[in-house]
Amino acid sequence: MIADREHTPHREALEELLPREGRSSIRDILQSMFRHKKTIVLFFLGVVVSVLIVSLLTPNVYESDARVLLRVGRESVGVDASVVGPTSNLNQFREEEVNSELSVLESRFLSEMVVEKLGVKAFSHDRSLISKLLNSIGLGLGDNPDDLSKQDKLRMEVIKEVHKRFKVEALKKSATLTLSYRDEDPHFAQEVLHAYIDAYLQHHIEVYKSQATPEFFEREAASILQRLTDKENDLKDFQKKHHIASVDLQKQTLQDRISRLKAELGGGTQHGNLDGAMPKISSSRARIAYIEKVLKDIPQVSVQEKVVGETNGGVASNAIKRRLLDLRLKEIDMAGRYTDSYRPLINLREQIKEAELALSKEKETLTQVTEMPDPIYSALSRELEEERVVLREQLARKDAIEESLQNAENELNELVSSEVEFKQLQREVNVLQNEYLQYRDNLLRSKIANALDQAKISNVSIVQPPTFPVEHILPKRTINLLVGMFFGLFGGIGLALLLEYFDDSLKSEEEVERRLKLPVIASVSNKEFEKCI
Length: 533
Prior knowledge:
The chain is of the alpha+beta class. The chain has helices at 11-14, 26-35, 37-57, 90-105, 108-118, 127-136, 148-165, 186-208, 214-242, 247-266, 277-295, 315-337, 343-360, 375-454, 477-502, 509-516, 526-532, and strands spanning 2-4, 62-70, 166-170, 176-183, 301-311, 365-373, 460-464, 522-524. β3 and β4 (176-183) form a beta hairpin. α5 crosses α7 (148-165) and α12 (315-337) packs antiparallel against α13. The two termini are 19 Å apart.
């Protein structure tokens, strides 16, 4: 078999005689790479040169970055502190707060505020950006976008691109946020990031400012104060009308008074008192009945001395006169102290009448009888009259106690009937007082929050202001070149192997012997073959 070292027979003629084997030796691979060394070198140089040209032609991109810190401030607490609710874990709350601030910073609204502040023309230094944006809306660099719709489209495209170039991220296990903006001009990148921070601080205050203004709380507080004053006046008028100072205290006082009057009226053991009006009256009546019963069996007058047949020499007459004088003096004394119904006084007057009658019947001779009121009868009569006086006093006292008791019960009933309305008025006053104090507290906090908003004071602190980027971050030419060399080298090798895989020609004596199982007698090169022709 004669093999051509570089010229391959026709593939169709040898298809049936050349069986493919699934594996190749390292030598075959190296031989294949050597045969395609030009392809590998050209591919490598092409990739490296292309990457180098693209890297050199790509404009430098600078990145300005800044850091802000979210402190625990008034934004971390609800506006209305009087609202009571469940407490949450501080770390979890801070994480939610950081995520909320991230969503605010990543909102498209901030990009719109930045573009509105700097203007679309401020981004004209970036020729690639403006060219791309103008081409996207059908304008060239030399055209003037006077059409309002095209101006709006241009503005929206600029906002979209600016929003894409702005990045924000939160540092792990920290309340610090990192902001960055990329641009071809380092000064402009720093300026845009400054605009972003200013817009964020302004928008942050707008987001967290109080929903209700101090004027709202002041107006509501004045309205509640007027209602409170009217309700307090109603309560005072009601107290004056029903003579109420303290319902509970007055009820207790009246109940104690009623208990004491009942004890005085019926007797009892309260404070060791057994001298109630009713027991005294019963006792006095029993005593009067007993004395009257005893008096029935005792004569009113008893004979002290009796002289029969004495010549009337005027002595008896004189004695009667003296007796009559004494009785009259005694009558005058008793009449001044007792009423006409006083029994001893009545008896005394009867004795006076008898003495006068005896004096008128005085004879020259007579039987002289000396009679005097019975001392026992007189003593019992006096005791009877005194007991009757005591009974009248007790009856009068009983009537007074019953009247006081009735008045106290009437007052208690009236107080109980007006207690519901009084306590309702009191509750309304207390509710209005609480509402007024709450609105006053909210008014004070709203004024403080409004003052802080006016001064643009928030819980956001600028830890690191926007930096001026000295070195560009893109393109990374060294890395690009290394990556290009890597891909160029291995891409060229891969291309050589791929070409070798699809090439079915026989390229060496060993391959001829291995595949055809025939010995090689001689080999002729293409040049030698051409000379023979």
